[in-house]
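Dear colleagues,

As part of the handover before I leave the project, I'm documenting each prediction I ran so the next person doesn't have to rerun anything. This entry is a single chain, and its sequence is reproduced below.
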Amino acid sequence: MIILEGMIVRKEMKINGCIEVPSDMTMDEFTDAFLELIESKGWYFGGGFLQIVDGYYINPDGTKGESVLKD
C-alpha cells in the first residue's frame, strides 16, 4: 500500500490461479499480452510466470518439472 499525505493512493492485489490459453500460444506471447493489459491500465506487475503442460510445470530449459499437485 502506498500512502501519500495521509491518503491511500495505491494498493496491491495478489493473484493465485491459472489462465487457460490456446494450445499454440507461446509463453512469450502470453506474457506480452498479459503485461500489455496490465500496463494499459497504468498498473504494475511484480512476479513471475510458470508454464503448465499436462499437470506439470515446465522448466526454463523446456523439460518437465514438478507436478502442480505436489504438496
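The longest strand covers residues 7-10. The radius of gyration is 16 Å.

All the best with the project,
I.
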